């Protein structure tokens, strides 16, 4: 288990380093960053001043090492637009994004696990087909559009929920539901296939031969084994949801990290963009690693390895 | 099934008074999966404390028969029977809830695949204890104590340590012992063992069989043992039923069957196996050509006729059930034809 | 049921493709022609609609049906070209990793892991934000980002094939490695890749719509469905149909592609490639 964890950690670090390089290169794509920062209508002299001020005249490698060295200790420099430290900006906005992501995940799990179990228990019946149809509908739903439709329906027409902002828990209901939609199809299908596999296994036959109740057979013996892959995919989905929350945060004007990124992109505020890409990637890497370790704990067979 | 002895008075009442009904009584059991008839009118019975072996090649309906008794058939299977009684109780009339109260308590089952029959996610102790608490209630602690006693009873050393282990930490032989101990948690009257030794090493097979025979003697268990291994039958069975293509083609006390096998299929099976003391060292083992056929519903005649050396045109018609005492054969050949 | 899904998906995708190809010849109006006197005309199912504009007009008085049909062009173009680009990258990586194993496979797995760690929408937005929005750039960015599933599926299916007898037979017959990859491996994993292609196409279309909705995808006045929703957003509380029509169209087309993919999966027996 320790060897496994260490190996996993080494790979994660390597991935983090690669993503770091990529997110640095990303902002250098356009060639001359100084021109982008200066914006339209800047004179060549302005550009030259900016280039010098931001150290953009130095070799690319030197710029990268400098940035990476400080990023490694959590210093992402200053925002060009917000006139604040990037790390402070991200730290301020992160709770909103995390709340949104966790709300979305909670809703997604609360919907997909019962649906998946139901479909598996009634495999090949109309219930199963209906559940699969729901998954397929969720997969085809444009999230930003669903957000708008919910706003019109529950915000404007019915007046049940606030349309935008972050004041109370009610502000997270609609964005959470929309975000959940992106994870429901995968989680439902995985729960379904895991349960079908578990229900067809020999140990379930044993459980039935032992005269256990249906609840114990489904909830204890089958679900426990079906849950193992669901847990790791749930972690991965949370990573995707945090990365994809930019769309939903923009639609609902939730001032989280995604909204920050969107603002920064439109303001050519590259230190922030760079940092958000990196932070979200690191969270994803950490989540997948945590999922692998959690799997080791959930599956006794992996624990010994 | 006949329980009459030779020389019994001919004018008996149709329902002779008995001290107690047989532990398990199956008459005309039929199980179909869609277009395939897996069991086609199988009949046999099992007395209390008796070991009854059901033998036959794979695919002849032995396991399905066992699952049908336990009510564990897969969805989509259809079960019919003229009689399906456990200790006088009609199993067909029980609801799923009543049946599950019986399973694991008064009738228990162990399976061919010890490697996969235990849940990988729970400890041995937890899986054993839950049978007891489910059927007998009481504390988990008490159930675990009983589990430890039974693990010791089935020959597992350091039972306290084994209780905390997961199935993957045990060998196949140990897992099958755990399965047996788990089946015994509630002192069942009937233990159905479906090829319990097939997946195990030969030396372990012998140990498990010895254990089963011992438990049967000590606890007065009725055992329905399903196997394709006639060597096993010769060693522990009181009575044998030979199944072929979903039918019981021959049923007899073990000694009688080995002394005078009457169905060509039984003879074929016996010729395939080196039964100690029956086959001479230098004699070649026989084999039955062909495979067990898939039988569609509505099939008539003897299912073995395509593989039988003694097949005749009349084998396609109705096959007579012949009876000589406790020895029953489903074949047109006259009794003693082989002698 | 499955067959019905396949047929329904095929019909939807077929209609969308026809619209995409024939758009200039079948639309009733010029999709770019503004008419400020006839803004936000209502669609046919509402009171006071104009038969000349079946689906009404947008905030600049452009015919909505014509824009919708032209929008199919953009979606289909993005979908197909993205899949071609990402399919090439992903299949190459996956086949190489699956076939050679060892270090090569480690490298491919590492690349897939890195790719999955990168937040797609964010990076795509950043790139488009930096380099300026254009159709080509969106295709390029999505193509470079969406190859992971191709790689995963190509890798695992190639691994299964590698050990089969006919590949060994081709080896011993002296067929070169590229020959084996192209003649023995690729044709046999093609059905799996076709299923992935449909799923990725659906995803690419959804992502383009999202990027355009956020103003960093296809530039106006191109009638991208995502852009139409973004432009209609300011009017949606009073004229909800302006976002309803392009949204439902987008949803149906993506659903159709997914249905087609699912049907193909069952038809080709391509197993679980989700």
From TrEMBL, chain A:
Record keywords, A-Z: Cell membrane, Membrane, Transmembrane, Transmembrane helix, Transport
Species the sequence originates in: Siccirubricoccus deserti
Subcellular location field: Cell membrane
Residue ranges of every copy of the ABC transmembrane type-1 domain listed in the record: 94-291
Spans through the membrane: 98-121, 133-160, 172-190, 226-252, 272-294
InterPro entries linked to this entry: BPD_transp_1_N (IPR045621), MetI-like (IPR000515), MetI-like_sf (IPR035906)
Family: Belongs to the binding-protein-dependent transport system permease family.
Top-level taxon of the source organism: Bacteria
Any single biological process term in GO: transmembrane transport
Membrane topology of this protein: Multi-pass membrane protein
CDD domains linked: TM_PBP2
Identification of the protein by name: ABC transporter permease
Pfam families: BPD_transp_1 (PF00528), BPD_transp_1_N (PF19300)
Automatic annotation (TrEMBL), chain B:
CDD domains: ABC_NikE_OppD_transporters
Biased composition (Pro residues): 11-20
GO molecular function: ATP binding; ATP hydrolysis activity
Taxonomy, superkingdom: Bacteria
Position of the signal peptide: none
Domain spans labelled ABC transporter: 24-270
Membrane-protein topology: Peripheral membrane protein
SMART domains given in the database record: AAA
Lyase is among the record's keywords: no
Keyword Signal set for record: no
Record region (Disordered): 1-22
One GO biological process term: peptide transport
Keywords: ATP-binding, Cell membrane, Membrane, Nucleotide-binding, Transport
Compartment(s): Cell inner membrane
Family, as annotated: Belongs to the ABC transporter superfamily.
Name of the protein in question: ABC transporter ATP-binding protein
Biological source species: Siccirubricoccus deserti
